[in-house]
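I would like you to sit down with the pair of lines that follows and say whether tokens and residues agree.
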Amino acid sequence: MDMSTLNIWAILVATLSTFLVGWLWYGPLFGKSWMTATGLSEEQLQQGNMAKIFGLAFVFELIMAFNLAMFLNDPSIGLQEGTLYGFLTGFGWVFFALAVNALYEQKSWKYILVNGGYWTVTFTVMGLILGAWK
């Protein structure tokens, strides 16, 4: 695989898109449902080390975007294919991997749907960006 054809700017924008989707998803859209499903309160969330959380999240999401870019690193893959493959990655792999863990952890279906839905949407958006921006 030729890494010289990867678009680093697209990878960075795809990485940053995870924060935008996360802000919407875990904020106005499903924030209350997520807090209920995890058993976390506003006070507990505010006690977290935000620099550590956001810093490591950026690194991990950059690795994910880079890996997805490697899978999509073919001239025949455009916006539609990138979006589809991003969706299949998020739903077919990540959603169900999280669901298996959640079953063993005895988490609720709400927990599975909120977190799995986030990753499905996130990978779909990343695939769209990476597929369109060659």
User: Anything to note?
Assistant: The mean pLDDT is 97.
